[in-house]
Amino acid sequence: MLIPTGQPVPAPRAAAGDGGADAAEGAVRERVAEVERLLGDPADDANPFGRRALLDADARGRPLPGADVLATGWGLGAEVVPVSLGGRLERTDRLVRVLRALFRRSASLGVGHGVGPLLATLPVWAAGTVRQRRWASDLLLGGGTLAVAPYELAYGDCFTRGECTAVPGRDGIPRDGTLRDGIPRDGIPRGGILLDGRRPAVVGAARADGLVVFARTRPGEGARSHSVLLVEAASLPGGRLVRRPARRLLGLRACEVGEVEFRTCRLPAGTLLGQVGDGAELALRSHRFACATVPGMVLGGGDTALRTAVWHAGRQAPGGAAGALSPRQRAVLARVFVNLLVCDCLSRVAGRALHLLPESSGVAAAVTGYVVPRLLRESVHDLSAVLGARFHCDEGPYGVFRVFLRDLPLTGVGHVGGAACQSALVPQLPELARRSWLRDGTPPWELFAAGGALPPLDVGRPVLRAAGDPLAATLVGIGRSLGADGGRRGGPRTELRLLRELVGGLTGELRRLRAELCEVPADDTAAPANPRVQALADRYALVAAGAACLGVWYHHRDAAGSFLAEPAWLVEALLGLGHRLGLPLPGREAPTAERVVREILDRYHSARSYDLYGDRLYADRL
Questions:
Q1: What does the alpha-carbon distance between residue 56 and residue 449 come to, in Å, rounded to a whole number?
Q2: How far apart are CA 386 and CA 400, in angstroms?
Q3: How many angstroms separate the CA atoms of 351 and 347, rounded?
Q4: Which terminus of the chain has a lower count of CB atoms within 10 Å, N or C?
């Protein structure tokens, strides 16, 4: 719940910070370290998950040999199974950081063995019966795999386009569309469902033991035109389910993506997930969860890209010392590291909002899915300039860098990425501007914390219009507090003065956005397609990113010895966002960028991750 705006912003609880003092945070760190150990030394040519093996698989366009051990031997499937069903899925921050470790090694690994299984399970946890949920959880916990033939959005691309249809058998789906464990409301068992059609790009198609299929059950494009089926592959007669290799992808070449075709497959009525026509609603629920979590996982690849650039810059520096970087190199590295922190702040807030503020989580999720891929893509492109001519090498760390840069556009949320996130955000902003902005109070501080107790996760919660905007409320509330405390807490006075000016600029931008969005008529159904409203949404997303960073810093500012407690990184983050917005910026009166560079070098030499957590990584000989 949001604190009434008239009340002062309460002091946050003692922060877990990046020291991992709290038990939940410590457990996450331990699991991340375990996955890092299992993946082994990236520089070891004999390591099946090393750079050479990954680049060889990419060059052949084949899945990494032995990658199935991730599910069968390491129990990675448990990460996407709820704790109540025997798995480890209890909190989004754990999920994101564990699967982020896969992306640090390879986007193909991350998509094929992390994101793909996650997206397949979400409709089951959201709408499955007790029997369906138990079957899926037993499958994944036993080392099996689940794949999804996703919902086809109107603005999808031709590569992923293909449709499956599901029609009643002789006495299949009841007219009212309601089933209970395969039995209609009248209690009379029915025949089944006839499934036909194909989907050309299904992650994990060749090895999937189960398939979650979004199929058309009604002609036309209405909200109830599609339904979702949970199909057990082994139950289908021979020749009814055909699996083929997909066309060669431009990226993710070491990720197994294939085509599935169903040839008049007769399925039991209990195959249906939820009710007939629930497909669009289940797709929206899955999309909200994916927007909040998947971008944070992909950040692992940005971590590796930055580490590669630091390594290269150090090799080129006089005496081979990473500390002797040129001013231009230092500026690029600092900007990219700060961008990664901005992205992770959004990821943290969006994920924890699913627990703490589910009724208001849609805005943060959409902003995260929209902003993070853009910032990450730009950042990795910037790093390619640091590599210079070596960027064109296709071996070793340089080859891994190039592969991630190529794969990055294909790692978005679903197959349309930011476009879908923007379309989810735009329609909500005029109403939020009128009802929420500058009125709501500060959200709970747990939204910005690391670790700590969280309410249970409800993946099946219906997707509704956001009840409030916790990010806009954070910006206004903390901005007021920064002015009230006179800059006595949180860092050097010069940096805090810069910070107050930057926060004031973002708050002013929020006021301008509110004034313009309030001019959009409440009944204007064409507003989401209006280029002016879309441009305002772009600007709002950057303001919201700044608010997420501000909330994380404010929560950690009393954590002794924590880099996140210092205002240097936040000043750099807000300067970058303000520059993108074209806002007037204060002069640099403090060496904030140099403090960021020192942190970059310290984390490089101590093998800690370039994110909010500084997790210990496998000591790479790079």
A1: 40
A2: 15
A3: 6
A4: N
Q: List, in sequence order, every beta strand (DSSP E) within 344-470.
A: none
Neighbour tally for 589: CB within 10 Å: 11
Q: Tell me which H or E stretch contains 465.
A: none
**How do beta strands 146-149 and 210-216 pair?**
parallel
What's the alpha-carbon Rg for the chain, to the nearest Å?
24
Which tokens sit at 91?
């909190």
Residues 597 and 605: their CA atoms lie apart, in Å, by 13
290 in helix, strand or coil?
helix
Residue type, 128: G
DSSP 423-445: HHHGGGHHHHHHHTTTTS-PPPG
pTM of the model: 0.91
Best CA proximity match to 448, nearest among 15, 92, 99, 32 = 15
Is residue 177 exposed (0-12), middle (13-18) or buried (19+ Cβ within 10 Å)? middle
Enumerate helices (H) and strands (E) in the chain, giving the number of each.
Answer: 18, 10
CA distance from start to end of the chain: 47
pLDDT at site 485: 63
- State yes or no: pLDDT of 317 exceeds 90: no
How do 164-168 and 192-203 pair as beta strands? antiparallel
Can you read off the two tokens belonging to residue 127? 């709408």
DSSP annotation string for 125-180: HHH--HHHHHHHHHHHHTT--EEEE----TT--GGG---EEEEE-TT-S-TT--EE
Q: Which residues pair with 226 in a beta bridge?
A: 216
Q: Does residue 155 sit in helix, strand or coil?
A: coil
Tokens 């448990």 label which residue?
78
Tokens 């931008």 locate to 509
Tokens of 215: 């199929």
618 closest CA partner among 20, 47, 19: 47
Number of Cβ within a 10 Å radius of residue 403? 24
Q: How many residues does the chain have?
A: 622
> What single DSSP character describes residue 134?
H
CB-neighbour burial class of residue 321 (10 A; exposed 0-12, middle 13-18, buried 19+) = exposed
Q: 146 forms bridges with which residues in the sheet?
A: 210
| Paired strand residues for 215 | 227
Task: Identify whether the C-beta of residue 168 lies closer than 8 Å to the C-beta of residue 313.
Answer: no
Amino acid at 124: V
Beta bridge partners of 164: 197
- Reading the block at residue 200, the tokens are 């050309």
Least reliable range by pLDDT among 170-179, 189-198, 279-288: 170-179
- φ, ψ (nearest 5 deg) of residue 171: -145, 55
Helix (H) or strand (E) segment spanning residue 138:
helix 130-141
Token pair for 576: 């970058």
Number of Cβ within a 10 Å radius of residue 156? 17
Torsion 75-81-85-90 (CA) sign: positive
- Identify any residues that bridge with 214 across adjacent strands, giving them in sequence order: 228
Please give the single-letter amino acid code of residue 95: L
The CA distance from 44 to 396, in Å, is 11
CB-CB contact of 227 with 217 (8 Å)? yes
Write the pLDDT tens digit of every residue in 90-115. Answer: 999 999 999 999 999 999 999 999 99
Q: Three-class SS of residue 216?
A: strand
